[in-house]
Amino acid sequence: MLGLMQEWPLVCHKIIDYAARQHPNREVVSRSIEGPITRSTWREVRARSLKVAQLLAREGFQPGDRIATLAWNTGRHLEAWFGIMGMGGVYHTLNPRLFPDQIAWIMNHASDRAIFTDLTFMPLVEKLAPAVESLRKVIVLTDAAHMPETALPNVVAYEEWLTEADGDFEWADVGEKAACGMCYTSGTTGDPKGVLYSHRSNVLHAMMSCMPDAMGIGARDVVLPVVPMFHANAWGLGQSGPMIGAKMVMPGGKMDGESIYELLDTEKVTFTAAVPTVWLMLLQYLEQTGNKLPHLEKVVIGGSACPRAMTEAFEKVYGVEVIHAWGMTEMSPLGSLCTMKPEYAAFTGNDLFDIKQKQGAAPFGVEMKITDDDDAELPWDGKTFGRLKVRGPAVAASYYGGDGADQFDAAGWFDTGDVAHIDENGYMQITDRSKDVIKSGGEWISSIDLENLAVGHPDVAEAAVIGLPHEKWGERPLLIVVAREGRTPSGSDILSFMEGKVASWWMPDDVTFVDEIPHTATGKIKKTALREQFEGYKLPG
Ligand code: AMP
After folding, report:
1. What are the pLDDT digits (tens) for 80-103?
2. Angle, alpha carbons 203-204-208 (nearest 5°)
């Protein structure tokens, strides 16, 4: 027997319709690429998205067409997203931190037909455009006064383009299963793979990410997504923000400590999210200036493991609650958040910070398991680690074009490539990438645990651990350290600091110092590059 309830498709334009109807005057503030802070509202964002959709449709773009964006987080970028989705198209966020050849490869793989770009990236687009045969139009997210000279054909200034439309347009009726967004994984190995979001997956993801034990945001929040829209959908905030009618503060291209602090302070931001590298810059800035964070209530930290010292600094010094989160582009991206279930709610001090080192529990809509190499499920005891597998309505079922099919099994489980343990209360902790875990004497050593421990040393700015070949044990850990500015710790200082905090056979065999640790385009430590750099390195003994 079928239920007798309405079929109300879960499509993304309903999000912006809702925001404009229920929260019309709530502000969307942007640090514009031209410089000044600009102000808009959800009503205006919707009105302008309708114009974008109308113009794209009028110019012959079809539902299903991939339309790229190469842009920072701004109100205009949001308008482009909702306009593209609203005409039935697929927004395809490009990560400008990738090499130009890689971006061109991705654009060709996706057959992007148009691109919205910020002024910042015009020189890059001039290089890319001739290499992407499918590309028909370039829309520069600026006004006529700021348009640069360019020899590219079919280029238009966004503001001028919008004047050609009146916004009298019906959102395209493509159904909730239609694709609406696309993002390629950064892929530390092999070619990047395309994740293709549907309207339904984006709407469900936005709903689950706002829940109190997930991000827990509402209309009273002022939300600053520092995490870029090109990094896994700004962790869904581009959709969840309007869904709950929050005021949004979009940071544009400036993510240094001073610029982020300025927005946190002047716009009275209550909620923000980004990778640890960004927060490192902010915390350093706060330390130097003595400024505080009186308005900020919560910060979500993920993308790579949040160092304990960072959680403690936010919570103890600035009174800001840290939510450690884990996710993947393939998961839209949220997979788990470390908010407190009743079992842990009364914890304080070190006990609480121990829990906050974990990446947390899955919200409704994410199923998890850990398995051994033979796919046998492992116990949730907080110790046994194995391959982390996930499924859910906002998890990829396959990659675009059928790439990487071996990561998906018949029962719908996606192998994340992460190694983790899960405790009896369902809190997951990543111990490694399966490619980075150090296999010593048949046992696994977590490189991430060692890195977290090393950065707890007051003279260490950043640390990475890689496994080096070892005659007797197979592999042994090497600790690579960037010292804090003006500090000169010795290897033995750092090792004695770590001693007693991990099993003795986990202790790195050696410590080496570098000026800089290489990062991927999404801010993760590039272990492949480190392994190349330290190939042939002789461990003592
Ligand atoms: P991306 O798709 O670029 O967001 O990368 C996803 C990968 O980032 C995951 O598979 C993890 O390896 C890593 N990652 C994300 N969040 C965390 C976290 N909180 N702790 C450790 N690793 C993380």
Report:
1. 999 999 999 999 999 998 889 999
2. 120
**Is 125 part of a structural domain of the chain?**
yes
Is 225 a residue whose pLDDT tops 80? yes
Q: Cβ(240) to ligand 1 under 6 A?
A: no
**Closest Cα partner for 363 from 243, 200, 201, 214?**
214
Residues forming beta bridges with residue 474, ordered by sequence position = 470
Could you report the per-residue pLDDT of 312-366, keeping only the tens digit for each? Answer: 999 999 999 999 999 999 999 999 999 999 999 999 999 999 999 999 999 999 9
Residue of 330, 339, 413, 520 marked active site: 330
**Is 444 assigned a catalytic role?**
yes
Indicate if 439 belongs to the active site: yes
At which of 242, 273, 304 does a domain end? Answer: 242
**Whether the CB of 329 sits within 6 Å of ligand 1:** yes
Q: Which of 299, 308, 326 to mutate to test the pocket of ligand 1 (most atoms within 8 A of CB)?
A: 326
Helix (H) or strand (E) holding 282: helix 276-289
Whether the predicted pLDDT of 35 surpasses 60: yes
Domain count, the chain: 3
Q: Whose CA is nearest to atom 8 of ligand 1?
A: 303
Catalytic residue among 14, 105, 160, 444: 444
Q: Is 262 a catalytic residue?
A: no
Nearest protein Cα to ligand 1, atom 7: 328
What one-character DSSP code corresponds to residue 362? P
User: What are 253-265's pLDDT values in tens digits?
Assistant: 999 999 999 999 9
Q: Active site includes 235?
A: no
* One domain, residues 143 and 60: yes
Cα distances from 486 to residues 96, 291, 472, 473, in angstroms, run 32, 22, 38, 37
CA of 138 to the centre of ligand 1 (A): 32
In three-state secondary structure terms, 370 is strand
**Size of the chain in residues:** 541
Judge whether 479 and 508 are in contact, CB under 8 Å. Answer: yes
Domain at 59, CATH number: 3.40.50.12780
Ligand 1 pocket test: which of 301, 430, 465, 520 has the largest number of ligand atoms within 8 Å of its C-beta? Answer: 430
The predicted pLDDT at position 130 comes to 96
3-state SS class at 185: coil
